[in-house]
Design goal:
The structure holds four protein chains of four kinds. Chain A has three helices and no strands. Chain A is mainly α. The longest helix of chain A is centred in the last third of the chain and has 32 residues. The radius of gyration of chain A is 18 Å and the shape is elongated. Helix content of chain C is 74%, strand content 3%. The longest helix of chain C has 54 residues. Chain C starts with a helix and ends with a helix. Classes of the chains: A mainly alpha, B mainly alpha, C mainly alpha, D mainly alpha. Chains in contact: A-B, A-C, A-D, B-D, C-D.
């Protein structure tokens, strides 16, 4: 069995990123769009954590790089904060449009 | 890297067995010992919250979301305490935080908690915790 | 009394103060007296301008004063620097002298506005602001200060063309003027920046700024004849500067805004769109002559060709206009074309002085007689209740005697009637063109000379056509004029008379016999600009040329007389004197017919074609203006309001950038 | 150094931001006890003043090496207070004060405390992003700007358009954050550190063969993420819709604050593509200018061209802000070349100068609209401004100053800013001179075309009769905000040298 390397994680991160981007661009539902964004953020998170785990110092020794982990933590927390705001915005959107499909919002254009 | 050995995890299995046993015992005792008055409300799968009967597409009261989000935010904020708790007081080779900084960082954590408390009081003052 | 430092800064600052005072206090406190700050300030500036002239005439080198550092970082060092030399002094006098009299005239002309006090104050504030900008333009010692004035006059022109904003046509004309000239200004700005950058590149260790006149001109006049790279560089700079000049001075292809600009009050047309602002392009090219001279000769040929073509085209269009002010507007375009023609003749060291003197001399005389003509037209308009269509009035020489005489003076000067000022300056231009035909591109210059000669004839014809149509024939007054048509008040006629004296006599006094004008320009400007490489111009008269151009001028006047004074009476005479005079009349008739078939007919036809060209150029310029809008209409649907689409566009952009960069890397 | 002192120093550097943020927290809380917009606006002004006072303390006067001198290997603080940071912090505080004045009467009483608290957090975010020397701090600082902005967008107005605007801005902004973060993750992976100083050192010392591909991906991602904040095409789409939908105060905020933070972040993070003496390893030095060249040309053209078609003033100003972002991108495009040749006006320097000028004139224009609007009769379209010069001569004059500055008339800040940017483009020599001369030409044509729509507004104000009476009573704070912006606009046009030299010291080119 091939060992799991950094590249695998990076590939996973990239796949998550692309999935998120596609989700973002194709979903009509505001919640769906938000999910896409979360995928993008978590793709980045995977990269951070993977880099933090796999990177070596110039001598090739394993080092514990705390920044990647910390970055991931911050991203998680901020994603939660954004989710809170998203809820408020989406609910309001629903109150006005009676749907959460964002393509109904096209008053402002041109 | 250390090779994976299931044997190192045996305390967890013991813990698991203990937990399962406790749960089963508690439920069985409640069923056997407690009085059983069957009211319609108690017959429902969930006693509190939404009425589960009816179309799944009905509207939820927005306050559920509010509570959930509030929980989520405060819960997730506590994430910041884990690294501190895990790292701040390690000794020897594993120490990431210089010993001199333990005091200042503790103050920082306190400030962080105070900020959360301000958020909590804000939510309270705004009447988030009143159901209606 | 004043040292030069104070003098130079006071000349623009006084009108600026007047503008500020009138703008802030005019509507509320000054009210009907809003004209006083403007008139006093401009007249004081005029006095100061004469003092400056005196100082310049006694100074060896240009007087340069640096007031403060405008922008400074690294090797960029641009000061607010003013200069006085022969050219500046003459421009200052033109601006402030003509400006003062026009401001006085405007008191009478704008009397209708005095009831709307806000409008009255607004007018004089804008005029004062204009004089400030225009004096700053000619006083600036580097291209950036000049550009500041340059944009300022554009702004004032915009404000004043749109003065009667209630008329949609006025608002549209104002915007057109601003935008068309700005198109040229974009080129000019690039030229200035390029000049600076080029100088930095050629002189890496310098602290001098390449857009200072002295620095740039010293560099330009020290360019070696075989240094083609530098010549091409100066060619580019010169062409870019020419863009600005062409826009501001209403030359082909950017002349289309000027006829529309006649929507403004007539004193404004006189001041801005005849005497001063539109000649700023001529000033720019004259000022930058060392750069144009260092460029390949084709650049100067371009200047001359643009000038000659504009002169001819505008003169032909003027033939068929019915609106008196429009005739004068096209005439202005045409006369400025003359000046460009003159400037374009400076192809050799020997010709520079001749050509530039001719251009500036014509600028000077033109300012007087064209301002006079516009003001006289304004006087006519004032009396006719703002009617300006020449078909609707005639025979006004008895009704408006003073205006008639002053208009005649201006018309005669413009037509080039011998001994009047227009005659001398036009003659110098034709002389310069003739001289240039002996040097590089001689054949082309010969053609340009001939077209200039033809234009001279046409000019005389359309000027006197307008004169005869307005002042001769039966007395006809439009109903708008009211019952008691009367001559304008003295506040209007006195400026007319003063300017008329200038239009008639100024030319002969300053140049042809005294050579004072050329001397001033040569010793107090050009010598220092060119570092002494130019050769003095030959004095003396080219008698055959003068005779020829007089012939053309008088021929044009005579033809106009025949067509608009003589022949309208012809049918009546024919009926009255059937016998006896029949033969003579018949002959006359034949003469007229011949004229008509061989001269006027083709001319009218040609004028029609020119009007078509005019329309075409107008449409093309409009189209260029519309182009961004059309592009916008194409792009607009992309902004469709859909969030996912926006996200998709962002992703697409990202993908395109990524793949493009990755592909570039792969290569 | 003693770690405690080091930590204390870091906090000391960020003291103004800490004061702002903590005050904001208290403001949130206190707002539940007292609801009075003027009271809270006064308080916010006081807090901003306190932050400014701290910034004026002697401690902040000694810092400060220019950005490019910073790359000593031992400088690994998460935040640095160099001259760029100091300049932008001052700009942010002044901008914040102007925004407080400007929104004096524009917020409702019950939300005033929240609004001002959010504003204070945003200002703190700008200051922090200007100081950030660590990707984590930078990311957090940018979020400190974004999240309160969402809240303000959500709170300020409740009609349909505002809701739509909030939703659009939120979704797209979060998405751009994702892009930025993804770029950051690769940058982190390249060097194993989030410290920008160390990161740039690492990138510079890596040889070209190993570096490029993933670094390019990271570069493009970061530019895309920050491109959203500075409204670069094609990341600009939200701007017109959101500006139109939301309130004037929020629109002004959006037009100014994210641009400052975005350009500050770009100047910091992309430092590695324009070193003074380009090391042979970094091939990005030749790639990045092309990227910014294209971005600049597209951004200014799209902005100007679409602005021509608009009637809504907020949309015009939105597209105008896009166009001006395009002009500023010229500075980023030319910066590497100019740094290489020791030019008179560096690209980064011109960007910083233009940023301040742009902020003054755009916020001023929005402030005028807000000053003249009433809830019953908002100023929405160009027609609504017809004849304002008669009813409000002073305000109309100042609006004319802002618009002429946006056009780029001499003796205004807009002219000086454009002059420096265009000068840089023409100063580039020799291999890429043609390329950048084309850019200057495009920019000059754009500036000429752009005059049209600004002139329309001026024409409406001065050359038209009022369609309806504008009878808003005078309020001094609004007027003060306008006057401050007008004064800055004129002062920077008449005497740009001090800011120009401060900007030069800031980016150290």
């Amino acid at each position: 069995m091939t060992p799991i390397t950094l590249n695998h994680y990076l590939a996973l991160g990239a796949v998550l990123f692309v999935c998120g981007v596609l989700c973002m661009a194709t979903k009509r539902n505001a919640i769906g769009v938000l999910m896409g964004v979360e995928l993008v953020l978590n793709g980045a998170n995977i990269n951070f954590v993977a880099f933090a785990y796999y990177l070596r110092d110039p001598q090739g020794n394993a080092v514990f790089l705390v920044e990647g982990q910390v970055f991931a933590l911050f991203v998680i927390v901020l994603a939660a904060a954004e989710a809170a705001i998203a809820l408020a915005i989406v609910l309001n959107f629903y109150n006005n449009h009676l749907t959460v499909d964002v393509d109904t919002a096209e008053e402002l254009k041109g | 890297m250390q090779s994976f050995d299931l044997a190192t995890y045996y305390p967890i299995f013991i813990f698991l067995v203990f937990v399962l046993g406790f749960a089963v015992t508690a439920m069985a005792m409640a069923h056997l010992v407690g009085p059983a008055r069957k009211t319609p409300v108690k017959q429902m799968p969930y006693e509190s919250g939404m009425d589960p009967v009816g179309d799944a597409r009905q509207h939820f009261d927005v306050k559920f979301y509010l509570i959930a989000i509030l929980f989520l935010v405060f819960d997730v904020e506590l994430l910041f305490l884990y690294p501190w708790a895990a790292m701040a007081y390690r000794e020897g080779n594993e120490a990431l935080l210089p010993a001199e900084l333990r005091g200042p960082v503790f103050v920082v954590v306190l400030v962080f908690l105070a900020t959360l408390a301000i958020g909590y009081v804000y939510a309270w003052r705004k009447g988030v915790f009143q159901w209606r | 009394m004043f040292d030069i430092r104070t003098l130079l800064v006071l000349i623009p600052v006084l009108p600026l103060l007047a503008a500020a005072v009138t703008g802030f206090f005019g509507p509320r406190f000054l009210r009907k007296n809003s004209h006083w700050p403007c008139i006093v300030a401009v007249a004081s500036s005029c006095v100061l301008a004469f003092l400056v002239l005196g100082k310049v005439a006694h100074a060896e080198a240009p007087l340069i004063e640096r007031y403060y550092t405008w922008m400074q970082t690294g090797s960029l060092d641009i000061g607010l620097t003013l200069r006085a030399d022969g050219l500046t002094a003459l421009m200052l006098i033109t601006i402030t002298f003509v400006g003062s009299w026009i401001a006085i005239f405007a008191v009478g002309y704008m009397s209708h506005e005095r009831e709307h006090e806000a409008g009255y104050a607004r007018f004089f504030a804008a005029v004062a602001l204009f004089v400030f900008s225009m004096t700053l333009l000619v006083l600036g010692d580097n291209y950036l200060v000049m550009f500041a004035g340059w944009e300022g006059v554009g702004l004032c022109s915009y404000l004043l063309i749109g003065f009667w904003f209630q008329k949609p046509s006025a608002a549209a004309a104002a915007r057109k003027a601003f935008l068309v000239t700005r198109l040229g200004d974009a080129g000019m700005m690039l030229g200035i920046l390029l000049l600076w950058a080029g100088y930095q590149y050629a002189h890496p260790q310098t602290t001098a700024s390449g857009i200072n006149f002295e620095t740039a001109f010293t560099w330009a006049s020290s360019t070696l004849p075989d240094d083609t790279d530098t010549q091409l560089f100066f060619g580019t700079v010169a062409l870019l500067l020419l863009c600005g000049a062409v826009g501001k001075s209403a030359q082909i292809p950017l002349y289309v805004w000027l006829p529309d600009a006649m929507e403004g009050p007539t004193p404004v047309s006189a001041l801005i769109h005849a005497a001063t602002m539109v000649t700023a392009g001529v000033y720019l090219v004259a000022r930058s002559m060392p750069i144009f001279h260092a460029a390949p000769p084709a650049v100067l040929l371009t200047v001359a060709s643009i000038g000659a073509a504009t002169a001819l085209l505008a003169a032909l269009i003027a033939l068929t206009q019915h609106d008196l002010k429009r005739v004068l507007a096209y005439s202005t375009i045409s006369q400025i074309g003359y000046m460009f023609l003159a400037l374009g003749c400076a192809t050799t060291d020997g010709l520079v002085l001749l050509a530039v003197t001719a251009a500036i001399f014509h600028l000077f005389t033109h300012a007087f007689f064209k301002a006079l003509l516009f003001l006289s037209a304004g006087s006519v308009m004032h009396a006719m209740g703002n009617v300006i269509d020449m078909r609707r009035f005639s025979g006004l020489r008895t009704v408006l005697p003073t205006t008639h005489w002053t208009f005649l003076c201006g018309a005669a000067a413009l037509a080039g009637v011998p001994l009047l000022s227009g005659f001398w300056s036009k003659d110098e231009i034709l002389g310069a063109a003739l001289e240039a035909s002996h040097h590089a591109y001689g054949n082309v210059y010969m053609v340009l000379f001939i077209s200039g000669l033809v234009t001279a004839g046409l000019t005389a014809f359309y000027t006197f056509r307008a004169y005869f149509l307005t002042f001769w024939g039966e007395v006809k007054v439009p109903p708008e004029a009211g019952h008691h048509v009367h001559e304008s008040p003295p506040v209007m006629t006195v400026p007319l008379m003063v300017l008329a004296v200038g239009a008639v006599g100024l030319g002969i006094v300053v140049q042809p016999f005294t050579h004072w004008f050329g001397h001033l320009l040569e010793h107090h400007w050009l010598n220092s600009s060119f570092g002494g490489t130019i050769q003095p111009a030959p004095h003396g008269f080219n008698i055959p040329l003068m005779a020829g151009s007089s012939l053309f001028a008088l021929g044009g006047v005579g033809l106009a007389w025949l067509m608009y004074v003589r022949s309208p009476a012809l049918p009546g005479k024919l009926a009255g004197t059937m016998q006896g005079l029949y033969q003579l009349s018949l002959n006359k008739f034949h003469v007229d017919e011949l004229y008509y078939v061989f001269f006027v007919g083709p001319a009218t036809l040609f004028a029609g074609i020119c009007q078509a060209i005019d329309f075409l150029v107008d449409s093309v310029v409009d189209l260029v203006g519309q182009l961004p809008g059309l592009l916008g209409k194409l792009v607009r649907p992309i902004q469709n309001g859909l969030v996912q689409f926006y996200a998709l566009a962002m992703i697409l952009g990202l993908t395109v950038f990524l793949s493009a960069l990755v592909l570039r890397m792969a290569k | 150094m003693n770690p405690t002192v080091e930590l204390a120093n870091v906090y000391l550097l960020a003291l103004p931001e800490i004061v702002l943020t903590l005050s904001a927290c208290l403001l949130f809380l206190a707002g539940t006890f007292r609801q009075n917009r003027h009271f809270w606006a006064m308080k916010s002004l006081g807090i901003l003043g306190a932050a400014a006072f701290i910034l004026a303390l002697p401690f902040y006067r000694q810092p400060v090496d220019p950005l490019f001198a910073l790359q000593a290997p031992n400088m690994v603080q998460p935040i640095v207070l160099d001259r760029l940071a100091l300049l932008l912090k001052i700009v942010a505080l002044i901008g914040g004060a102007v925004l407080v004045l400007f929104s004096w009467n524009e917020v409702s009483d019950d939300l005033a405390a929240e609004y001002h608290a959010c504003l204070l957090v945003i200002i703190a975010g700008v200051g922090l992003s200007a100081m950030a020397n660590d990707l984590i701090i930078l990311f957090l600082a940018l979020e400190m700007i974004s999240i309160p902005t969402y809240v303000i967008l959500y709170l300020q107005k409740t009609d349909l358009g505002a809701r739509e605007a909030a939703a659009k801005y939120f979704l797209l902004s979060v998405f751009s954050t994702g892009l930025l973060l993804f770029g950051f993750s690769y940058l982190y992976g390249l060097c194993g550190t989030t410290n920008i100083t160390a990161l740039l050192d690492g990138l510079r010392s890596t040889d070209a063969g190993r570096l490029p591909l993933i670094a390019l991906v990271a570069l493009v991602m970061v530019v895309a993420g920050l491109g959203f904040k500075i409204t670069a095409v094609p990341f600009h789409f939200y701007a017109p819709d959101v500006y139109q939908g939301t309130s004037l105060t929020s629109a002004a905020l959006l037009a100014f604050v994210p641009k400052v933070a975005g350009f500050a972040a770009l100047l910091r993070v992309l430092d590695f593509v324009w070193p003074g003496n380009r090391p042979p390893g970094v091939a990005l030095g030749t790639q990045a200018p092309i990227l910014f060249w294209i971005l600049a040309a597209m951004t200014m053209t799209v902005g100007n061209v679409l602005a021509l078609l608009q009637d809504n003033l907020k949309r015009i100003l939105a597209y105008s802000s896009v166009a001006h972002a395009g002009y500023m991108l010229i500075g980023l495009a030319t910066a590497p070349e100019l740094a290489h040749q020791a030019a008179a006006v560096g690209g980064g320097q011109a960007v910083v100068f233009y940023l301040v000028s742009y902020g003054a004139m755009t916020v001023g224009a929005f402030a005028v609209l807000a000053y003249l609007s009433t809830p019953q009769a908002p100023i929405e379209t160009v027609d609504d401004l017809a004849g304002v010069s008669r009813s409000h001569p002073a305000v109309a004059l100042m609006m004319a100053i802002f618009l002429f500055s946006l056009i780029g008339m001499p003796l205004t800040a807009g002219f000086a800013g454009k002059f420096f940017l265009f000068l840089g483009a023409l100063e580039v020599r020799p291999e890429q001179a043609v390329l950048f001369r084309c850019l200057a030409l495009i920019a000059a044509l754009n500036a000429a075309a752009g005059a049209w729509y600004y002139l329309r507004i001026i024409a409406a104000m001065y050359l038209r009769t009022p369609l309806r009476a504008i009878d808003k009573p005078a309020t001094w704070p609004g007027l003060a905000a306008i006057a401050v912006c007008a004064a800055i606009t004129v002062a920077l046009g008449v005497y740009p040298t001090p800011l120009l030299q401060a900007a030069k010291a800031a980016v150290g080119q």
